[in-house]
Design goal:
0% strand, mainly alpha, 89 residues, extended
Length: 89
């Protein structure tokens, strides 16, 4: 249903449906670290999202905007990258 609603509005929009395989706290941890280190910031005002981010304690159903933010930033930042290595010549 989600795919149908979104593609009806914009058929050429890239869409990736996701399904959680880890707990929400574990999923959000890398995103929270990026905020703490200044690697993520908001351009504009998002009061509803910011309220959710400040008030959610990790229990119960996760707020919609914050959950979407975690999925989006996870996709944008990609998977964990391998550590750089020094190669011998």
């Amino acid at each position: 249903m989600v795919r149908a609603v979104l593609t009806d509005e914009m058929a050429e929009m890239p869409l990736k449906l996701v399904h959680a395989t880890r707990g929400k706290t574990m999923r959000a941890e890398p995103v929270a670290r990026r905020y703490e280190t200044g690697r993520v910031h908001h351009a504009g005002s998002f009061p509803e999202l910011e309220d959710q981010m400040c008030s959610y304690d990790g229990e119960g159903k996760s707020p919609d905007r914050m959950d979407a933010l975690v999925w989006a930033l996870t996709e944008l930042f990609g998977k964990k990258r391998a550590q750089p290595k020094v190669r011998a010549l």
